[in-house]
Structures are given as structure tokens and as C-alpha cells.
Design a protein that fits this description.
The chain is of the alpha/beta class and about 240 residues long. It has helices spanning about 1-5, 15-25, 60-70, 105-115, 120-130, 150-165, 180-185, 185-195, 210-225; strands at about 40-45, 75-80, 100-105, 135-145, 170-175, 175-180, 200, 205, 235.
Amino acid sequence: MSRYNGKRVFVNKNVDEIYESVVEWEKEFTKVPDQQDPIYTMVDIACNSDLVLMQKHMPEPLIDYLKRFDDHPQLNSTMATKYPGLLKLDVNHFNKPPRVRVSLMPQKYSNILEPKMQKIVSRIADVNRLKQLGWEVHLNYSPLIFYPGWKEEYDNLFSMVKNAAGENKCEVIALTNHVKQMIKAKPEARELMRRSYEIKNQSGVMRYPLEHKGRLLSEFKEIYSKYFSIKTIRYIF
């Protein structure tokens, strides 16, 4: 990840070794139905990168990598992306649908925190297209931004999602920050990030103060429930 390594990007080429390590781990893991999945052990294959964007840098085609998990009787894959428009793979022939989580936030915040990335309205429009290609599509409201006017921004966002993509399972992750990121961020980004000032751990990770966060998450759920069943939120923190 460039945010940790300056201008460098590291590409893992030991795909077989990584996959086999997951297979070995799963042998000792007892799957119980949970918010991740009622049947399969879900493996986030892109927790440190956006594989949809990075497809051309992978040592093997993305669909071949996904098929490894599809062929396993208990494992399934999941990944988040901010570029769903680049995901063109038809997986209707898979044994089980791989999961993709489309990341969303109000466009006003996206313009500042993720400039030049795929527009939010375009990401929302891709949800039903990906379903037609055989994907299990979840939404990823991350990072969740608390800033003056945030309630109206998310109300508008949910209205857009409801009209264009309907109801979908989702996950909600409030903004975390880092002391070094604050130093590097542009002034308008620091303004959005500055309320997540509570130091979470010794590594310098910052979050919204816990004394406020619980209340804010409750307010988020109130707005969300105007449009969708609260049961569609797999987890929120």
C-alpha cells in the first residue's frame, strides 16, 4: 500500500503459497453461521489493496485467483472496491457467487478524501450490473464520515442507493485516521479528518472519540432505517 510505503507498491507473487496457507488455516477452523456468511468461510482477498484496480499487476488473472476459492468446498472470497466499473468478470458459472463490496460515501466527501476515483453515482449504478454478472454484491459504507451536515449527506446517499440499487447487505466502518496521515493530508482533508482525533493504540491510529461515537452510530442507523431494514447491516463500528 502506497500510504505505508511512500511511492512504492509491493506485489505478492507467491499466490500458491498464500492460498495454501489459507487452506491449511481453514482445516483447523470451525465455521459457524455468523454475520459474515451462514455457510462459507469468507476470506478477504484484498484487505490491503483494491484488486479490481490492480488486476493488471496480478501475477495471474483475477478470475483464476477467484476460482481457487470457488473450487474449495468451504472457502469463498470477498473484496472491497472503489472501482466497480472496472470489474467485468462474468462469474455466473461459478459454484458459488464471489462477494464484492462496493465502497460508498457522499460525493462531497469523496471529492476530498478520494479525488479522481470513480464517481459515487457511477458506483451505485454498477451494483445491479454486477449482480447480473453473478456477483454477490454488498455495500461498504466506509469510511463513514461525521462532519457538520453529515446527516443530510447520508440521507441523500441512501435515497440514491434505494432508487438505483435497492436494498443490499452492507457493512459500516467509521473513519480511522493516523497521525502521519494528518501531516500529509491536504487542508480540506484534514478538516474532514480532524474530529477523529482520539488515539486508538500505540501505532498512532486515531478514531472518533468513543464518548461520541456510540451516539453518532445510533444516529446513522436511524437515518439508514428510513430506507432499508436495519437487519441488512452486517456490522457497524
